[in-house]
Amino acid sequence: MLPTDTSGASVLQAIDLKRHYAVDGGFLKPGKSVKALDGVSFTLQAGRTLAVVGESGCGKSTLARVLTMIEPPTAGQLLYRGQDVSRADPALAKLRRRKIQIIFQNPYASLNPRKRIGDILEEPLLINTDLDARARRARGQAMMERVGLRPEHYSRYPHMFSGGQRQRIAIARGLMLDPEILVADEAVSALDVSVRAQVLNLMQDLQRDLGLSYVFISHDLSVIEHLADEVMVMYLGRVVEQGSKEAIFGQPLHPYTQALLSATPRLNDAARRERIKLSGELPSPLDPPPGCPFSSRCHRVMPVCRERLPVLRQQGGRQVACFAVEQDLGTPPA
Questions:
Q1: InterPro entries from the xrefs (predicted)?
Q2: For residue 3, is it within any domain?
């Protein structure tokens, strides 16, 4: 596999992606809509890592499923090198499967227990290419070696491997079609700390050698700080702050981002932040609060926050959706 272009060109662009689910309201009651994704936009550059962070229920995994078209978006566009691969077109679907792949969170559930590892690795080639059995086996064995597994593992079953080894197999499967983009949905959260570090180092090596671009979804901010180039913070289906890793970790502006970073454990006393404790639970997406969705938990809430929805705007060297930040920086009203 040859490295892809890493000159900074855009490989993936999401434009106002939405994913809404209709929910039955009950007997003689109107139905409701869960806005799991509500207008998410970003641009992923070649050879770089976009990290998506937020609490459980903020829409991170829904975003991963939409980016890989496991679930189609309710609205919006998904552009791979300028082509809208979210459209119902067989040729575009084939292109998307080859160029955008996913690594799931749980390596114990994402591998078919009834198939040998070799069959699991060869299956994408069997479905999407015209390679013969010998060529498929050669590609599979070469990929196993690249992710640090031995040739004798090829004929074994998933239950014979540790969690870290299974996740290496999942990564190998994701790379079998030579994709440019890997969507990693909490790919290391189920692993022990030492194994997690090994898998993260492997992903960095693969990105350097193959020119891969990552959409890396995690709730672990220490992992994000280690791996990311850009960071996108989500809350209740919306992006609240987005910018470079240096900007987000160096000086977070949105109150939610500040609260997340203040909860990150630090060994160095000088790097510790004053703890910001959020009150209450994440609101129900079936009944979000009016105005800003974070207003019910924000320590800087103002009357306008409960009346209007802030829009994502360029402020302080990143994009932020917050009236308090607009007030602090003197940004003209939208």
A1: AAA+_ATPase, ABC_transp_ATP-bind, ABC_transporter-like_ATP-bd, ABC_transporter-like_CS, Oligopep_ABC_C, P-loop_NTPase
A2: no
Into how many domains does the chain fold? 1
Q: Quick check: is 325 in a domain?
A: yes
Q: Is 110 a domain residue?
A: yes
Please check whether residue 164 is in contact with residue 198, taking contact to mean a CB–CB distance below 8 angstroms. yes
Domain of residue 187 covers 10-329
pLDDT at 265: 65
DSSP 237-273: TEEEEEEEHHHHHHS--SHHHHHHHHTS--SSGGG--
Q: Residue 2's pLDDT is what?
A: 40
How far the first Cα of the chain sits from its last, in Å, is 47
Alpha-carbon distances of 113 from 3, 124, 158, 184, 279, rounded to whole Å: 32, 17, 6, 21, 43
Q: Check if the beta carbon of residue 290 is closer than 8 Å to that of residue 217.
A: no
In this prediction, residues 204-232 reach a mean pLDDT of 93
In a domain, 2, yes or no: no
Which CATH number belongs to the domain containing residue 20 in this structure? 3.40.50.300
Cβ contact 208:42 at 8 Å: no
pTM exceeding 0.85: yes
What percent of the chain is helix, strand and coil (3-state, nearest 5)? 35, 20, 45
User: Residue 287: pLDDT band by 50, 70, 90 thresholds?
Assistant: confident
Confidence grade of residue 190 (pLDDT, cut at 50, 70, 90): confident
* 327 and 317 Cβ atoms separated by less than 8 Å: no
Whether the per-residue pLDDT at 6 is higher than 50: the answer is no
d(CA 66, CA 19): 8
Q: At what angle do helices 163-175 and 193-210 cross, to 10 degrees?
A: 20
